Amino acid sequence: MSLSAEHTVDQTAQPSAVADRGSVDVVILGAGVNGAGLFRDLCAQGVNCLIVDKGDFGSGTSAAPSRLIHGGLKYLETGEFGLVAQSTLERNLLLKNAPHCVSPLPTVIPIFSWTKGIWAALRTLLGSTSAPRSRGAILIKIGLAIYDYYGSRHQVMPRHKLVGRRNALKDMPALTKSIVAAGTYYDARITHPERLVLELVTDGLEANASSAAHNYTTLVAASDGVLTFKPESGAAFSVRPKLVVNAAGPWIDHVNAALGAPSKMIGGTKGSHILLKHDELVRSLAGRMIYFEADDGRICLVYDYLSLALVGSTDIPADNPDSVRCDPQEVDYLIESVRSLLPGMTFNHDQIVYAYSGIRPLPASNASIPGLISRDHSAPVTEADAKRPFPIVSLIGGKWTTFRGFAEEVTDTVLSRLGRSRKTSTRTMPIGGGRNFPTDPKARADWLTRNSTLVETDRNRLDKLLSRYGTKALQIAGHQSLWSAEDRLPDSSDYSLSEIDYILRNEYVEHLSDIVMRRTTLAITGSLTASDLEQIATIAGRALGWDSPRISDEINMVESQLRDRNLMHL
Length: 570
Prior knowledge:
ten-stranded mixed β-sheet, 18 helices, alpha+beta, about 20% strand, disordered N terminus
């Protein structure tokens, strides 16, 4: 089978309209989830925007979360009730607006005492930055009741329950016998955060054809109100914005300096995670997460992520996002933590199939315990001056779950400064493949019956695509129908060559790593092989016009990154 070049699309043409005009309402620097969420909201209001990222969309901190959509139970003990209220609301909204990749996650909290931690919690509420982290059953019961209360708006999941030691061990025998009780409550998981960032960007482009998005594009000059950018592939271009939003996450201070507005806003911490091939543990979890206290009092978690056990997270002061990786001592810490929690199971380094790490863009803080640094967000404004005629809005802090609410707040600020009013709310606006997604078994069955004939695709295959891409599966299945239904990667029974071809021609791919690490889950699930990587690179060469040396370079770059940063050997 040959992959014809006649289907190639020109993805570089789209941003030229902004460059040709030479002016734009808003430039957003950074296309992580906060920048992408803001881009979508502003575009929906008719604001002409340009969003750029020096890497791929969603390739920085937004690609390194615990993959949870959660209300922030632990923020109750620091008194951040407003953040919990917003987070639980946004969690519930995401379950409705992005059902193709966000789903409920029952969560178990092992409890090791009845009364411990009450006085420490009171000290923390009164402002202590060094109180010990320890939580007994009484404290957890109070916290879960408050959590349910805040999560009652747009409620979509059950309330919590608390059981004694006997019932807890009966339900989950692998837990350490030192527990006295266990609590169960509900949060949510996100299966593919990187794709959701891409969907936010593409939703914005669909809402406003006068807006543009550039990945792999560097800010090379800022002078007299003009910003000059150089795409990795393509000619440099300049624009004159009315307002700039710095959504660069842990790079915010670097970007502000480049804009001529030096700042010291970020004091980030590093969070690392490992994924284990551990079938016994995955079976024991039975779709649940264990949210537990490690021996040193820090919070850890383990849950089933795409049939692997995801273990996280560390919380270490760090300030260099360009060199961040999961260090050996972090790996040891995470393995020892689950080993202590589940003493009847075997854990070792050979079970690790993937690891990742990112810098949380937290506000600068003097807290002695990184876990006590606020996860709330703010958007300080650096006003225009004689040398820089545009104001800069910097997006500080925040968390994955609250990106929509954060974007809404900043959009209202931007609209006010531009003298405009809001046209629509994003509160009930579906995201990407979540639009018209069938959320119950009958609706799903009807959708598959109706559309499998329409796109001439095997029903089981369409069902898998629906789980992966939401209702955008129809576009991919339509592309797939050009090829044989048996068309698969050499070692993967999950991805077809035509599916990869569609991604290459329609989803702003610049590098091989974009496909295997963000557009698909091939890398993070440990299913990527050298043969598959070579086949994907061959398809990329045909779709994007890469010659043999470029293909070899791309393969080498992916192998090096996976080996050095992700502890993965093909």
